[in-house]
Amino acid sequence: MAKRSVRLSRDAIIDCATALADAEGLEAVTIRRLAQENGVTPMAMYWHFNDKDSLLDGLAEHLIASVKLPEPGDGMWDEQLRAILVAFLDAIRPHPALAGLALRRILVAEPGLRLAERVLDLLRQAGFGPEQAAEVGTFLMCAVITLVVGDPMAAKAAVGGDAAADMRHKQAMLQALEPGRYPNLIAAAPALVSCRGQDDYFTINIDLLVQGVRGTRRN
Amino acid sequence: MAKRSVRLSRDAIIDCATALADAEGLEAVTIRRLAQENGVTPMAMYWHFNDKDSLLDGLAEHLIASVKLPEPGDGMWDEQLRAILVAFLDAIRPHPALAGLALRRILVAEPGLRLAERVLDLLRQAGFGPEQAAEVGTFLMCAVITLVVGDPMAAKAAVGGDAAADMRHKQAMLQALEPGRYPNLIAAAPALVSCRGQDDYFTINIDLLVQGVRGTRRN
DNA sequence: CGCACACGTTGTACGTCGTACAGTTGTGGG
DNA sequence: CCCACAACTGTACGACGTACAACGTGTGCG
What we know:
2 copies of one chain form a homodimer.
Chain A: H1 10-24, H2 31-37, H3 45-48, H4 52-65, H5 77-92, H6 96-99, H7 110-125, H8 130-149, H9 163-175, H10 183-187, H11 189-194, H12 199-216
Helix pairs in contact in A: 1-4, 4-7, 5-7, 5-8, 5-12, 7-8, 8-12
The structure holds a DNA duplex.
């Protein structure tokens, strides 16, 4: 594709990999493909990254670094918590193929540490002890990531996989179930196949999480 | 390893793959490895499964089928909902390496359909409309799965990866952060590295989810 | 009793992946 | 000018999923 202008840089590779993942899914992000995309030999990648896993570390860090944390402000703790979760969500939503990488990588780089620190701080304000704040905070961040990775758009890339046709097919399958046994599935079929990726889905479930924290705290 | 006694069966392969994933992680579950484990040629697998993806479908279905759904009983909807989420959690906790497979496969086989139907039914009882029940129900099941996949035990298999040493190292790293910037991370360091996989973590966050549903419903 | 045939399995081969190891260049500071 | 070192190339290996065709074998029918 593109011949490199002067030199290759770690950041350029990460940007390229991010674009590639957005366009064709995470499985398209391959050492060889990235090299080709930059007009370079596969082994050239290993100058900038120790191995593929550290490339993925870099991708996750870059993704988490794009979170626009709101100022520590003065609102209620629950409003601030929602704002942080929404900021996190907004950052990862454009990159559903990469979101899963962050699941086990939040605490490995500085941007994730800042995010986690803010979340823990608010949970402490809400009355949680250090251990419970750790447990709830860990889950909250993982849950936000899960909101994004379930997106069916992440599966569109596979050899021209037609996502729309797939969804139509799935909905038809649900509505063809035995009405006696699965009335709710049939009634909810359109929403079940399309809800992920829709604004409603994100707002109602972020709400659920914040309400859950309110209902779980000790004071 | 093991020579097959008489013949190979789809179920035997799935059981073998499950055990393999539990022992060495999902990345050890490979067509060739499975064949070798059963004293058979790799291509023999393709008689029982179309391709690797349908093998993974089978693994996910088998996992979801192991959920011991409580009887539709007569308690409050929130108690019943918790019971179902706990049943789901209990089924997938022994197999953290496989849990992630279920994320996008709940609605593809019968056991997942039954689980989803029950969840939707209870959400309708709680006052949600069909669309909202679909959105919340989808998220609830994904969230329970997320509780399990974050487990650090899933990363132990890689070439003799010493999970305990890894956790000690991570905790030391957290506690070595600048105290001025990351006080909460430092205070919660022990819990942050060990909370996943502990009973507290699961119960408090299942609680959070149920409380969240209560706080989000319309009536 | 024997034979055909489908079921289950084998053998070989191809293309892709990550990456080890050693060699080669281009460029900037002495 | 030159040379050291950062950046990159070339070749090779083993593992992966799997296409395709050939092979053995147990079972049911004549």
